[in-house]
Amino acid sequence: MIFHSRIALILGACLTLGANAHAADAPATENKPQAGSYATLEGLQQTALEYSPLIGAERLSVSAAQARQLIARAYPNPNLEALSGNSRLRPSGADNGRAREYTVTQPLEWPDARSARIASADASLDATQFGTALLINDVLSGVRLRAFEWMIRQEEIRNLQDSLQLLEQMRQRVFVRVDTGEAAKSDLIRADAELLSMRAKLSAARANANSVRLLLSEVVGTPLPDDLTIQTPARMKADMGEALQKLKTLEDTNPELKQRRREVAASRLRYDEQVALRKPTVRLQAKRQTELDQSLNQLGFAIDVPIFDRRTGQVRQAKAEADKSELMLQARRHALTQQASSAYARLEAAQRQVEALETGVLKQAQAALAVAEAAYRYGERGILDTLDAQRVLRAVLADLAQARLEALTSSTELDRLAGVYANAYLAFPTDKE
Fold first, then answer.
1. Main-chain phi, psi angles of 284, to 5 degrees
2. Which residue from 173, 172, 189 is spatially nearest to 377, judged by alpha carbons?
3. What CATH number should be reported for the domain whose range is 2-85+97-425?
4. How many other C-beta atoms are found inside a 10 Å radius of the C-beta of residue 331?
């Protein structure tokens, strides 16, 4: 059946993807990142597909929906009755013997009720498949978000390490000048205080990065090494044209909206089934009765006439659930559209901020620090000017790292809403209206 083949497509796509990822990462012995080795975003995503318990549990939901589909297609079983007993005639001296009776009853289904039930199960299976795509989409986007945050935190650590190295060199120069009497001892005190503050900031940055690594390990579903290093993708900057296209086609690509549309279809079909079940239930009967000197064959039917129970409650319940699913679809469509618009706006603003910092402010801060260091070296300025210039540069670098993280986060959020990761990893059935 076509719906069974969809499950095979899902599992086959995941297995094929796992084989391709293993072949692409030839230096590694397995998909899980090893200590001292480099990990890629694609490798981490593949690891999440294989080891995430959430994805594994969701795939079992597809198996359950497939089983419900088989239940919906099953025909009602016939009922067989067999009776046997003694037969005695009233007149004395008459022959006695055994009497037997066999009855077969076959319930019949109305075609419209059966077709509605099967179509509802098919739609429910599709909805479950899209639910699996939605979960995989969320997990893989979560992997990218945490991986990007890890890379930004590592960049912050490198910037702080560079600043610490500059401070240590400056402190050594200050010590020499103080020792030779060219500078006041207060300069050395300021340099030591700044050095202690920088070491504390570096320690805090490492702790924050470790927390991000643990969160990434939780999303991936397997422990990651302490010295994990993620290779920087060749393309870190989002294409605003592609982002705008994703925003425009959101309703056609978002897996949650696909899932909810199938749920609406399934609930409408369940309502049709309940309406069709209002018809009288018909059972076909065949009976054979044998006695001493005669046999009787009968063929007929039995009807349950819906006089007192018109299934009013079941019909109203199904109608309410169908209307509720329709309203939930409209609410989620509006909410997801607003989320995508907000993500696009944040991405646009973050991209502008990154460009402004990289092309202007950062270069100015670096030039100001170089001038301040040269002036201090020749005794034209005090140490406070140099320390202030270093603080300004660190603040600019921190702002730049935060802007890059905001751009990457917004781009990943827009990709998640557009269903990019689900569409990339699963061969899913075409959404049907």
1. -85, 130
2. 173
3. 1.20.1600.10
4. 11
